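Before a colleague's protein record goes any further, I have to sign it off. What it holds is a sequence and that sequence's fold in token form. My question to you is simply how this chain folds and whether the tokens agree. Thanks in advance; the entry in question is below:
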Amino acid sequence: MVQGESPGGGAAEHPAVGFLWEAHAEAVERARAASEPALLLWPTHPVEFLLAGQEVNTSETRAAEAHIRLHMPEAVLVRVEAERGILTEHADAGGRCAVCLDPAADRRREWPCPTVLGLARAWGWQG
């Protein structure tokens, strides 16, 4: 089960954080839908690529196999759980990140910190 199914209650949520929670929820929903009815469709052994009836094993097909495995439902759920843990650690503490220090100002960075914004950008946030 993915921890942190919903964000902790906060008064004002930054658009990047709201976007990230929505992206996580959508990814979890899709991963669960993909893994439940069709477990046997996901590769449990090297993916076989066929070209004109012949198996093709090249650096490109190995790269494609690695990409497929990275986006398997179980892998998505693990990544979402890890990112939700990061969001919990990098929480809003009075307008400052609970973790990140701004070395130039000798205080906590403004929230959302670059870590939280980076996670959101990785999911397609462009704000």
User: Anything to note?
Assistant: The beta strands are 49-51, 54-56, 96-102, 107-110. Residues 27 and 126 are 18 Å apart (CA to CA). The radius of gyration is 19 Å. The helical segments are 15-35, 59-70, 73-89, 114-122.
